[in-house]
Amino acid sequence: VKLNTSPGNVEEEAFWLISIALSCIRFFYPVDHKNPSYPMWGKKEAHPITPPVFNNPRIIVRTQDRNVNAGGGSFPLLYTVDNKVFEHFKQSGFEKFTETIFNYKNNTVAERVAHGLGWMTRGRHSEDRSERFLFFYTAIEALVSTGDKSAPVIQTIARNAASILDDRPEVRSSIAKNIIESYGFRSSLVHGGRRQVSLTQSYRAQQLAEGLYDAVIKHIDLTMKNEDFENVLREASYGMPLSTTE
């Protein structure tokens, strides 16, 4: 990884760029590729720098019946890049996409996407469900928040996310309602320190984040200025279909 940074920041900055690259791979990975180690939703992804732990040395004892769980072994979940995957990347626009992401211009959608891809990888690396939830919502905010300080943050995020995910007003309303409810747990966690996030909620946060980024990557010109992107989202929130790159 080539960097232009101070010696003390090398590892941290390199890991951040690797994190973005991993999410790029995930979004372009062929869905029909038979990879048993692929990290599905809610599963912890292998760390790209820290060596994986194959054996779990911890012992869990259930007090009711003295049942003992001795941990056991596991294989790291990762992305297998073989010839088939490599050919898929060559034909799917992966190179052009990564070129745009890693050489983004300031104040563009590509900058938003680059930041969000890094946070999503952090979420997939985390074992703690609350941390996963926060990382995925950080990615969501990076993509759909706006510079309008007068608008309620939760309402803006819910409205914009719903506009990206579906063109039907009745479905958008349902999506926005679910996001507002989910965001309440995020606020309790960040502002109240309450660790009340379930595994299902962290799982759904990942689904939401990946669904939003997949839609934007496929349908939005990543070189678009943030101001223009926010205008597109604003128009869509009034019932119009989301403008696409087609």
Note the main sheet. Answer: 2 strands, antiparallel
Strand order of the largest sheet: 1-4
- Helix- and strand-based class? mainly alpha
The arrangement of helices and strands along the chain is HEEEEHHHHHHHH
Helical content band: 55-70%
If you average the pLDDT, what whole number results? Answer: 88
Shape: globular
Termini distance? 34 Å
Question: What's the quaternary structure here?
Answer: single chain
Descriptive labels:
single chain, 246 residues, mainly alpha, 4 strands, 57% helix, globular
Explain the overall architecture.
A two-stranded antiparallel ribbon has the order 1-4. A two-stranded antiparallel sheet has the order 2-3. The longest helix has 24 residues, at 169-192. With 246 residues, it is mainly α. The chain is globular, with a radius of gyration of 20 Å. The chain has helices spanning 10-28, 83-91, 94-102, 109-125, 129-144, 153-165, 169-192, 199-219, 226-237; strands spanning 55-56, 60-62, 67-69, 72-73.
SSE topology:
Layout: H1 10-28, E1 55-56, E2 60-62, E3 67-69, E4 72-73, H2 83-91, H3 94-102, H4 109-125, H5 129-144, H6 153-165, H7 169-192, H8 199-219, H9 226-237
Antiparallel strand pairs: 1-4, 2-3
Give a quick summary of the entry.
The protein contains nine helices and four strands; from the N terminus they run αββββαααααααα. It has helices at about 10-30, 85-90, 95-100, 110-125, 130-145, 155-165, 170-190, 200-220, 225-235; strands spanning about 55, 60, 65-70, 70-75.
